[in-house]
Amino acid sequence: MKTVLITGATGLIGKEIVKVCHEKNYVVHYLTTSKDKLSSQENYKGFYWNPDKNEIDKSCFNGVSSIINLVGATISKRWTDSYKKEIITSRTETAQLLLDTIKSNNYPIEQIVSASAIGIYPDSLTHYYDENEKEISDSFLGKVVEKWEAAVDEFTTANIEVAKIRIGLVLSKNGGALPEIAKPIRFGAGAPFGSGEQWQSWIHVEDLARMFVFAVTQDLQGIYNGVAPNPVSNKELTKAVANTLDKPLILPNIPKFAMKLVLGEMHILLFESQRVCASKIENSGFVFNHYHIDPALTEIFN
Fold it and tell me: What is the pTM of this model?
């Protein structure tokens, strides 16, 4: 019976991954910074860690062959200078703590599958990005992902196979961006951002969870885009949400300067454009359950 160690298991994506693991009868070990979230079920065991103090319960590695790494402070919070630092260190220092502990104790970990983000790709309305792209966005998000992936790549120094899944806009009814997108639309105040032409490379949370577990079961290595095969524009996404909720869109587009006043630098989350290709993961044998935005939204909201 396979045992997988998950960081970030209690988050939006992590909870879905745990479900998929249990469907395959995998035992899940998970690390948490909250002692209130510790569990000791037969197939779901929690272990405490405090990366700020370099503390980790080493028994989390017992019997583990693969790690799914999701940990990282949310980017959906105002980017003050101090919080920017936390966004980076919550990804790089946690990876370093895992690696140092594995190396110093010679734990036989074979593979790590780590979250990453499509924010590494430059903002473009015309480019179609695949995993071979070398140019990195000069935005804060681009720098975050570059450092994040570099920290995860260090696991190869311990002869551990590394796979990185660059996640797009995750659609779920239980959290993330979609409920926030839907909220103003429900009250008749929805509208696209800016020109509305910027690309939104999205993925249903269930497909993303299945993709992480697929990467584990298939021993994938390298970079894979965690997006559905059919990206849409911000205008199309907004319209699709409104249609699914049976609400009109009557307001003009929301200008960039207005959101910059409200959100500061974080406003780029709404206006940057990355049209991202899903062919590599499909060619590896992964089959999406949600290819198109309209049926995906119908499934989520209904």
Answer: 0.96
